[in-house]
Prior knowledge:
The complex is a heterotetramer.
Chain A: H1 2-8, H2 11-17, H3 31-35, E1 45-50, E2 59-65, E3 68-74, H4 87-90, H5 92-97, E4 106-108, E5 116-117, H6 120-137, E6 139-140, E7 145-152, H7 159-172, E8 174-178
Parallel strand pairs in A: 7-8
Antiparallel strand pairs in A: 1-2, 2-3, 4-5, 6-7
Chain B: H1 5-8, H2 13-21, E1 27-30, H3 35-39, E2 42-45, H4 51-64, H5 70-76, E3 100-101, E4 106-107, H6 131-134, H7 159-167, H8 172-179, H9 183-195, E5 205-207, H10 209-212, H11 217-230, E6 241-243, H12 252-255, E7 262-263, E8 267-268, H13 278-285, H14 295-307, H15 331-339, E9 345-349, H16 353-356, H17 360-368, E10 372-377, H18 382-389, H19 391-395, E11 406-411, E12 420-423, E13 428-432, H20 445-460, H21 469-472, E14 480-481, E15 486-487, H22 489-497, E16 554-555, E17 583-586, E18 591-594, E19 672-673, E20 692-697, H23 713-716, E21 723-726, H24 728-734, E22 741-745, E23 750-757, E24 764-766, E25 769-771, E26 773-777, E27 798-799, E28 811-817
Parallel strand pairs in B: 1-2, 5-6, 9-10, 10-11, 20-26, 21-23
Antiparallel strand pairs in B: 3-4, 7-8, 12-13, 13-16, 14-15, 17-18, 19-27, 20-28, 22-23, 22-28, 24-25
Helix pairs in contact in B: 4-8, 4-9, 4-11, 8-9, 15-17
Chain D: H1 28-52, H2 55-79, H3 98-122, H4 126-152, H5 157-160, H6 166-185, H7 192-216, H8 221-224, H9 226-249, H10 253-283, H11 285-298
Helix pairs in contact in D: 1-2, 1-4, 1-6, 1-10, 2-3, 2-6, 3-4, 4-6, 6-7, 6-10, 7-9, 9-10
Amino acid sequence: MTVRRLIASWPVVRQLTGDDRLGLGAAARSDRSAALVARTETADRMVKSICPYCAVGCAQRIYVKDEKVIQVEGDPDSPISRGRLCPKGSATKELVTGPSREYTVKYRRPHGTDWEELELDRAMDMIADRVIATRAATWDAPNRRTLGIASLGGATLDNEENYLMKKLYTALGAVQVENQARI
Amino acid sequence: MGSNMAECHPVGFQWVMEAKARGARVIHVDPRFTRTSALADTFVALRAGSDIAFLGAIVNHILTTGREFREYVAAYTNASAIISEDYEDTEDLDGLFSGWDPETQTYDPTSWQYAGMPAAPSAGTKESSPQGEAHGYGSKLEGAEPPATDPTLEHPRCVFQILKRHFARYTPELVEEVCGVPKARFLEVAEALCDNSNRERTSAICYAVGWTQHTVGVQYIRTAAIIQLLLGNMGRPGGGILALRGHASIQGSTDIPTLYNILPGYMPMPHAARHGTLDDYIAANTAPAGFWGHADAYFISLLKAWWGDAATADNDYCYDYLPFITGDHSSYRTIVDMADGKVPGFFVLGQNPAVGSANGKLHRAALAELEWLVVRDLVEIETATFWKDGPEIDTGELRTADIGTEVFFLPAAAHTEKDGSFTQTQRMLQWHHKAVEPEGDCRSELWFYWHLGRIIREKLAGSTDARDRPVLDLAWDYPLLGQTGEPDAEAVLREINGVGPDGRTVGGYTELKADGSTACGCWIYSGCYADEVNQPARRKPASEQDRVALEWGWAWPANRRILYNRASADPSGRPWSERKRLVWWDGDAQRWTGHDVPDFVIDKPPDYEPPEGAEAEHALRGDEPFIMQTDGKGWLFVPSGLVDGPLPTHYEPHESPFSNPLYAQQANPARQTYRRRDNRYNNGNGAVDYPFVMTTYRLTEHHTAGGMSRFLARLSELQPEMFCEVSPALAAERGLVNGGWATITSARSAIEARVLVTERVKPLRVQGRDLHQVGLPYHWGWKGLSTGDAANDLFPLALDPNVHIQEVKAATCDIAPGRRARA
Amino acid sequence: MTRMGFFTDTSICIGCKACEVACKEWNDVPDDGLNFLGTSYDNTGALGADTWRHVAFVERPRGGSAPPSSPPVNGQDAGSSPAADALDTGSAGVRWLMSSDVCKHCTHAACLDVCPTGALFRTEFDTVVVQQDVCNGCGYCVPACPFGVIDKRESDGRVWKCTLCYDRLKSDMTPACAKACPTQSIQFGPLDELRDRAAGRLGVLREAGVSEAHLYGADDNDGVGGFGAFFLLLDAPEVYGLPPDPVVTTRDLPRMWRAAAGAALALVGAVAAACARPR
Amino acid sequence: MRPAPVTDETATGYYGNPVLKAPVWKPVIALYFFTGGVAGASSTLGFAALLAGNRRLARSALLASAAGIAVSGPLLVVDLGRPARFLNMLRVAKPTSPMSVGSWILSAFAPASMLAAGSAVTGRLPRTGRVAAGAAGVLGPAVATYTAVLVADTAIPAWHDAHRELPYLFAASAAASAAGTALALTPVPDAGPARRLAVMGAALELAAFRAMERRLGEVAGPYKEGRAGTLARAAEACTAAGAALGLVAGRRRPVAVAAGALLCAGSLITRHSVFRAGFESAADPAATIGPQRSRRAAG
Lengths: 183, 823, 279, 299
């Protein structure tokens, strides 16, 4: 039985018994080829997104399997992009899953010569301390502000993030808040 | 012009190609022959930094040949407005407008006003916050009365005649001399534009940072605005001026600004000299006519959104919780202060100033003067590691152990790892949903700032110091999601949209009140969460909608896709052309209707005349489409809001090998400069030491300063190294070999690059001699997979005075074969 | 099943290389080396095991001399008016041609013919695909291809080339490159439809005065029986690095076997003659 | 560095890049062409000698055949990118693929050749040995010539365009090398057929090479210049010297050994020359473009 099946699966036999005598097509097809499907079909879910590069705002579909991004496609529903993506947009999967990404906090102490490890919570606490101390040291009471804390960035961030940033900075009296739109 | 759309916005360029296939003519005017030029019907090479001469000559061509769209110009622009008797033009003062104060190096714009208008506040010192950008959406005048006009456009002081005189010397011959564009070539473009702009046809102008990154950048765009208003191309489908912006949410970060001089919705940051109290602020920023007439409602709603219950009528809605600005606190000013040791702390988020900003060396020196630095990014960018592997460490100019900056690098979450909205280049908000949880320590900025605020508030709790009240009283409650405690981005968007007295979301900014009963984080975004629905997340397939696709995403304001679209119809409310109809007055229904959301009071008839005492939008007539302008008109002449003149004028770039053939005034007199040892300029007769013009640009294969591209193999292999583009003639003159190395020097620095010799770069004949231009893509730095020197190191801080943007599209350089010296 | 293929209309290619990246992201193709080649904006060089879409960048003088094998050139660029050309002193005076090359999925595919293992096979979409679970890296297909498409990935030992996204096709999806292409320079579909569309496009271009436009690989009678992935070009094929008249090598195989038979007989004859001589 | 991009010269195509891919085969394949040739022609010579009753010659030829084929197998496997998958060669039987045809031939030839040699050396199973020798002898010319079809059945001009001559060149070269091997291994009195075959093989090899060069015309370059050209001249010298030596003084054993070695060297170098020429031809865009352009121009 198994032997027979083994023999039957031998492409030479399929050549002799089927239509593909020259062994250029169906006879030569492997089991893997026969069973092949696009990996997006076996994704656990598809999430709708927007390309993070330029401001055209192309729509993306993010395919997720086992909590990993396995593919990023253009979304043909978009009236802006009609499913198309430029090379950068097409490289989005590497952007979000590539080996260059950093996943841990790094800390360089003053005059230090290399990075050190730091817990995220500890880093947050230290940064909060720095903000409070610098703010106190540089407080300009008549103008209700500090010129000791500056911020640069926002054009690559979400509106909601820019909103919270501006809200917090303004409450702290930090006014040197800027982003790429100026550059 | 000023845009390389095919390379920088390839997917947007599909529409240009589609238009071309349908018969549209694509004209590309640029210093370089790019991939856009390759696909254009017509390419015109012009000298970098000479666009106003070219555009101004188009204005002149329109006016001298009578090609303006007369009815449109007369009805919808301020062409007929009569300007103050005190106004003097650059033609009269050899390159200066009236009001120039050589002492302060600034203009007093009083004489630029409409005749009979009260004087606007002085633009003040150059370091002050200009009004123009603060009212980046619409402009404001002081007077309530419509200006005196001459509908025949014949009055010698009417805008139309001033315009004619101002541009009279901008001839095809001048274009040839200044821009290096042959006369016939120029005329071909001017004629094509005129021929295609009328009732039946419209033309669009696309630009990008090729226009903004100049010391006269704002005026470049102004010139285009004049052309489009004269030709009747504004507010109409297929027309307009399209700013092609370069970052996913750079529009959003201006609307909800991480910018020093504005608050959400283009409301100015309070200025110490002008906005001492809430009443001062409201008075200064509320326009007598147009939708800026409700600035009080927008502003008080913002204060309510920020300080919630703590903001009451009794405490002026916490107005005194807002810090004052006192001058220029923009990026470059701040960096200069940082280099001088005046700024101890710095947050950098998704940006890479160590290589991405002009005069990178100055930036790196500034970073080394910090006490502490927080860098948040996906990868370890140059800004995070300048202290250990920057070029100055290499050359020995800086020693790691000498740098006292404490650096925190925090890995960021990618867009796939967080919910949120981007605002794309056409003002459309689009929501991206979180696909996966961020790994390790990666977090969103939403998480970072909310938790930073939380920790600071915890540490300050109980403080009695008045300065801590704004922090402690902040409305800082958002639902937290998941194990990391991620603030709910939709809740933030809802706050941005605004809520009414009933606690439900408002439907739009017209529902906002100045009595503290509404709260709204950004008035122009009001409506983005109307009916408690996340409107930017709408994704009705394009195939199931008409081509305006109003149910995909949400565009501010009020989901309008084309601004000022009332202008697509004639004064009586009928479309100028059936072919080009967009919105029109439906007499039966007594409403404006059409394919787009009408950008007008929906039931204001075309023949509406404001009654005595009408305010805000009610003070504008039914045939005044530019509803954010105090006079409802498109401004050919800008009486208020700009600090460097009411009309565009050709000035040479700050660094130029040529003298200005039009005026004794060489460069924009109001431009912002920093004369310091670490920001040297090639001034005087620049042609000697640095005879060539250099310009920076992007490539399709990379993204800005490279943080999102140079670290990716699939993009890096496509453009693996920094290179410069030179003509065969320059290569021959300087002994440069294709594929070899060149060193490019400027008054600031020297960088090296691989050489790409190409016929696409040709010398231009300017003022009787051949000019060579050197092209420098600016994506590189020393980190990542694809590395190279940063082109930005070569460029100076020399800024546009209106918006403080640096001039990196034209400066002077020299070039020699071989690699740069080390150590 | 219907034969599926690509029509690459180079007259609307903007050289963005989205096809190259989209292909690599989908098919997990490694980078092909980070080398600055100094060949216009092309730093990929050619198709190969690690490059299944390759965008060629050709800088040519306007109205430059055309090779004899190409249709006559009347000195005009795509879509430019004659007036524009006459005034061309202000422009760069150069044409920049971009073209995204790919496996041609030949009707008569040499790689497929010569493959000894059946790793290469013709799919139900009439495309030519390497089965990576079968290929043993004999390398025969590499010199057999008249376009220099297929190549061996040394780190892996097997040969690789465009599969026309066989897995995506099986899931009724468009190949990654065609889907990404911003201007639809790369079009995917049933080959018959694509040929009709290409003929229409050619007509439009010719009418607009672009007389140098021509189709490459749309002829069933050419040396490989027509391409499954064909092109609209604006200059001679060789300008883009394509062979002007490719022929499938196996077309001559019968003659080769006959020559081999003759040679074998000669060998037998010689041996017989050598041994038959009396000692 | 490459020349500056803009050029009117389109004969070298795209920046002078090759149109074709160079073969990925390593020089062991050229070596296999030689060992396969020795094996193939030797088995025919051996069988013929057997029929003629020349047992000594038959023995040495059959032995050479077995040795040749024993070496060939590993050479082929070593060159595979995935050697463990060598059995996939018998997954299909494709007449369109000379390598597939060759694989099936080899899989029949190799055991036959081994068996014949074993029998000849040990004297056991004489009848089986004879049948095996017959089978190998009949398959031998195929083994010796299919490799010519294999290289000719590519897109490389210097190989493909020589497809009429290459089989003769390979057959002659195989004959010369088989004769050379036999000459060296066989006592002088029994080596007469080998000497005659050597002369015929060498003469045919030299003639076939000339004919091939003539046929190739504008794409013959690699055989005349460069490394392949140098190899071709060296091969010619060895082959001619070997044949002459064998003819003139082949009756002295040491000279016969030397002549045999020269013939084998000639054959080996010939295969290397052909092998090399393919790489050089593939690398030259003009070789691909030129003839095709002419062909198109001719209509």
